[in-house]
Design brief:
There is one protein chain. 32% of the residues lie in helices and 32% in strands. 29% of the residues are buried. Helix 5 packs across helix 6. By secondary structure, the chain is of the alpha+beta class. The model has no long low-confidence stretch (mean pLDDT 94). A hairpin with a 3-residue loop joins strand 1 (13-15) and strand 2. The protein contains 7 helices and 9 strands; from the N terminus they run H-E-E-H-H-E-E-H-E-H-E-H-E-E-E-H.
Length: 214
């Protein structure tokens, strides 16, 4: 017996022309930590609901591991946050997540992501989100995908618009003491998804399916 038999979610693979997305394994954590420490966003412009990137190194590293382990342990049919390591040429360069609650009834997913700064501006953020949406709509059977970004985060909002998301209101957030941000809520229905001109290659879904869908 192998680890893949014990936890079949690890068999999942999403392949695009330039990237591979796979559920984070412990062996990916050092490379993901290095990618995060190399910088994820401009100084003073934290795009996350929790300013995890601002933690000192001695806190960021174990916090990343705790986050991965906690979310992995919570995966159950119709209730999950799948954390995909984003690999370019076999090297983790970021993280893309896919979340759902009461999926059987709501058929709705949400997502978030980060990418090391050296790989920004190359269209990789769009490619990895498109991969996730293809998987959600075509394999999982989702009908709606949700996301969000602060109103100043033009690059994230541009990715969403390119893929067909529509604005769906504004919510105030307080990511840290003394800071209040307006977060633009985004919604995409499957029929309005602007599909890429490439095909997604999916592997391992048959084995992982029982852990994700009731």
């Amino acid at each position: 017996m192998e680890l893949l038999d014990v936890w079949p979610v690890f068999r999942l693979r999403l392949r695009t022309p330039r990237l591979e997305l796979r559920p984070v394994r412990d062996a990916d954590l050092p490379s993901l930590a290095e990618a995060a420490l190399d910088g994820v966003h401009e100084p003073g412009r934290n795009p996350f609901g929790i300013p995890w990137t601002e933690a000192p190194r001695e806190e960021l590293l174990p916090n990343l591991a705790r986050f991965v382990w906690r979310e992995r342990a919570g995966v159950a049919p119709n209730e999950w946050n799948l954390l995909f390591a984003v690999l370019e040429d076999g090297r983790p360069i970021g993280l893309q997540d896919l979340r759902a609650t009461n999926f059987a009834a709501l058929r709705t997913v949400s997502s978030g992501s980060w990418l090391t700064r050296s790989r920004h501006g190359l269209g990789l953020g769009t490619e990895m989100r498109a991969a996730l949406l293809l998987f959600a709509f075509d394999e999982l059977g989702a009908t709606v995908a949700e996301s969000g970004a602060y109103d100043w985060n033009a690059s994230s909002l541009a990715v969403s618009a390119k893929l067909g998301y529509r604005e769906n209101g504004v919510t105030k957030r307080a990511p840290k003491p003394g800071v209040v941000e307006d977060e633009v809520q985004l919604r995409l229905v499957a029929s309005e998804f602007r599909r890429p001109d490439w095909q997604l290659e999916v592997g391992g879904f048959t084995e992982a399916r029982p852990l994700l869908l009731a």
